[in-house]
Amino acid sequence: MVAEPRDRPLKGDVVDAAEWLRELLAREGPMPLSRFMALALLAPGRGYYATRDPLGAHGDFLTAPEISQCFGELIGAALAQAWLERGAPAPVLLVELGPGRGTLLVDLLRATARVRGFHAALSLHLVEASAALRAVQAERLRSFAPHFHDRLEDVPEGPPLLLVANEFLDALPIRQLVRTHDGWRERLVAVDAKGRIGFLLSPWTVADPCGGNEYPVGTVLELAPAREALVAEAARRVVRTGGLALFIDYAKPGPEGDTLQAVHGHRRVDPFSQPGRVDLSARVDFTALVRAARREGAAVFGPIAQGLFLERLGIKLRLARLLAGKSAELAARLERGVHRLIDPEAMGTLFKVLALSRPDEPIPPGFLASERVP
Ligand code: SAH
Predict the structure, then answer these.
(1) Exposed end of the chain (fewer CB within 10 Å): N or C?
(2) Domain carrying residue 340
(3) What pairing do the DSSP bridges indicate for beta strands 243-252 and 197-206?
(4) What is the mean pLDDT of each run of 10 residues along the chain (374 residues)?
(5) Span 86-140, pLDDT tens digits
(6) Ligand 1 center to 325 CA (angstroms)
(7) Which residue lies with its CA nearest to atom 20 of ligand 1?
(8) From CA 355, how far away is CA 292, in angstroms rounded?
(9) Which is it for strands 261-264 and 197-206: parallel, antiparallel or unpaired?
């Protein structure tokens, strides 16, 4: 997600999540960062996502589908092409993980309306933990009668699957381990006597998390068992039923590095200053996810840069079509949006795309055979 200077009044603070978390930490003691993230983001009635719609210019951050309609349109083109190449199976499950305001799906469905038989074959499944966002999605996607689920495991299994997840994995909880002189220690979240929330290093060392790789003292490693389990489940389904899964996220090159970030009103803030009121996320280590998907027998492609992926799918042509007949002002806005998605200085290279498919099925649109992980 992209932070930029801006502010706005706080919304959804009916229950003070920060106070609740402080009391919980005082009562129950320190907790791993992963549990803190899960509670601060999703605790029913209190968590950040549970209580608000955080997206858009008036929210806390902007995502690719909110920046340009071309994003959802091209994901739609890619999924519809994959569907055609697989013999246009009916029914087919269209699954989005963490659909936010539903914008990607609105654009995807509009762009694929004329793909013969596609909409008639679709059954739409949204995996969304936030009651607030479910309400927005239900309203915007009403005519497609979406089914809602808490977890991917709850989506019915059988028909082939077309799955997309944009900026979903970065919201799943991570653990952080720190290399000390005598081993790796978990970072816990704790509250001190003055009510300040912060990190506390566990007094226990944990088993070597990195297969004997030597890291200097002070290194922070991020592990994300929840992301690995999720990607493994997507891979298992794609292998069993056929189809395609696309994961798009803000990437990091490996597990090293502290990338926990908190954003509020388009600005970066201290992750512990206002838990429950700020977005928490961490960059995605795709190498761990590639391993998880390969273990399930999936064909894994990428990750490749978002800009490259969108250019291969024809984003420049799509933009040129969109610009025809538009006012100078609107044209400039549309161009700025596309530029932001593909420019290496903006989201073009930091964001990466990973595709999973069944080994006997065609290469995912936007990828080359040589980009398959051997
Ligand atoms: N994909 C959207 C929104 C990204 S924000 C976009 O690109 O605009 C992250 C989304 O994931 C939100 O909809 C949030 O409510 C949802 N989410 C976060 N953690 C989740 C979890 N553990 N299970 C289900 N949904 C989750």
Answers:
(1) C
(2) 4-371
(3) unpaired
(4) 39 68 95 97 91 81 95 98 98 98 98 98 97 95 98 98 98 97 96 95 91 88 97 98 98 96 92 91 98 98 98 98 95 97 97 98 98 97
(5) 999 999 999 999 999 999 999 999 999 999 999 999 999 999 999 989 999 999 9
(6) 35
(7) 129
(8) 13
(9) unpaired
Kindly give the number of the ligand 1 atom that is closest to the alpha carbon of 38: 22
Give the tokens for residue 20: 């609740």
Q: Is the CB of 186 under 6 A from ligand 1?
A: no
Report the relative pairing of strands 92-97 and 122-127 from DSSP bridges: parallel
Helix, strand and coil content of the chain, in percent to the nearest 5, comes to: 35, 25, 35
pTM of the model: 0.94
For 289, the enclosing helix (H) or strand (E) is helix 286-295
Is residue 107 within 6 Å of ligand 1 at its C-beta? Answer: no
Separation of CA 169 and ligand 1 centre (Å): 8
**Hey, what amino acid is at 364?**
P
Q: Say whether 136 sits in a helix, a strand or coil.
A: helix
Rounded Cα distance between 302 and 227, Å, is: 17
pLDDT number for residue 11: 47
Q: Residues 148-191: pLDDT tens digits?
A: 999 999 999 999 999 999 999 999 999 999 999 999 999 999 99
Q: Which residues of 343-373 are buried (b: 16+ CB within 10 A; e: fewer)?
A: eeebbbbbbbbbbbbbeebebbbbbeeebbe
To test the pocket of ligand 1, the residue of 104, 168, 169, 353 to mutate (highest count of ligand atoms within 8 Å of its CB) is 168
Measured from the Cα of 226, ligand 1's closest atom is 22
Looking at the 3D structure of the chain, how many domains does it have? 1
Q: Give the strand pairing for 183-191 and 197-206.
A: antiparallel
CB 63 less than 6 A from any atom of ligand 1: yes
